[in-house]
Amino acid sequence: MIPSVLPTYNRAPMAFVSGAGSWLTAEDGSKYLDLGAGIAVNALGHAHPALVKVLTEQAGKLWHVSNLYRIPEQERLANLLVEQTFAQTVFFTNSGTEACELAIKMARKYWYHHGRPDRVEIITFEGAFHGRSTGAIAAAGSEKMVKGFGPLMPGFRSLPWGDHDALRSAITDQTCAVLVEPVQGEGGIRVMPDACLKGLRDVCDETGTLMILDEVQCGMGRTGRLFAHEWSGVEPDIMMVAKGIGGGFPLGALLATEAAAAGMVAGSHGSTYGGNPLGCAVGAAVVEMISNDAFLAEVVRKGALFRQGLEGLVAMHPKVFEAVRGQGLILGLKCRSLNTDVVKAGYAQHLLTVAAADNVIRLLPALNIPDADITEALARLDRAASDVANNA
After folding, report:
1. Is pLDDT at 392 greater than 90 in this prediction?
2. What is the value of pTM for the model shown?
3. Structural contact between residues 40 and 246, judged by C-beta atoms closer than 8 angstroms
4. 69 to each of 55, 64, 73, 121, 272, how far by Cα in Å?
């Protein structure tokens, strides 16, 4: 008999009832050190007092009115994002997948607006993950996500990761945009070098192609800058944001330049829940905290501390680990053993990590994780690796 919850997840055999900072408490009262942060969502940890206060205060005033009316909390968050980024305008969603759908629509509408309705093809890259809607899976194109779901949305072309020659030859007069993650999360914590992002921007400028960045997982302070592309000095035309922007509250956004958004007019897109007062009140508090220079400098420092320890683990467990990947606090361990075995061994040590493609485990802790918790995490990873090696 099918369970009441549709069985589309292979869930771990534990459930949590509360959390504080980087720690979760299970139903049996045991504590787990969380290096997944809800897949990079709980950017400030669990039950951050400032976010609890903001959410509680807003919940006591107004939850939802719809986008039929002005929403001051939404306008405040949009202004913060415009002040801190390349963008001149923002549309709020509930998830990264919804942001992806709008990015596709906006890029195609841009060319329609400029009299080129034939420019609809969007170039993406192998290993990408942009969500699980029909448009997003068509963009990624991997067999795992598209098999069995019938005809895919046309107009996408996937290229090998990091192949500049392939990119240049792939762009034609039918290409409307290039869509890429500066750091692939689901794809195995693969960082696109700054020179590659600069080269991509150059190609887009030469051909008039729009540059869309997916910073759903790698944005919101993960790399030590508010957004990962800032390290390269380039700016996109359109950018997808979600996960950490709500600090745990479901929230996403699409950021764009005025030029890129020129075709989007009243009635061209909408969302009943997107940009609701609850989500935007929390999101504004998150953006204010994470965009602080001192906070981001701490992410860089903590990331370096964590990476140094992980490099030591690779050296200590060469049969289990192969290499460390990532930047800031979006880190990955490329495994020689099966990555899911390492994740399960972590459960036995009351440590939560997240599997990714390319036999990688993801380490996505709260951005404000204390140094002591990093030290404890390394000790638990060490014991987990020893267990995997001993059971091989």
Report:
1. no
2. 0.96
3. no
4. 21, 10, 12, 35, 11
Do 196 and 168 meet the contact criterion of CB atoms below 8 Å apart?
A: no
Q: Is 10 helix (H, G, I), strand (E, B) or coil?
A: coil
Enter the DSSP assignment of 268: S
d(CA 370, CA 353): 17
Q: Which residues contact 48 (CB under 8 A, 6 or more apart)?
A: 247
DSSP one-letter code for 118: T
Q: What is the pLDDT of residue 291?
A: 98
| pLDDT at 162 > cutoff 90 | no
* 337 Cβ contact partners less than 8 Å away, ≥ 6 residues apart: 319, 320, 388, 389, 392
Do you know the residue count of the chain? 392
CATH code of the region 16-34+293-391: 3.90.1150.10
Cβ–Cβ < 8 Å for 176, 209: yes
| Per-residue pLDDT tens over the stretch 178-196 | 999 999 999 999 999 999 9
Residue spans of the domains in the chain: they are 16-34+293-391, 50-290
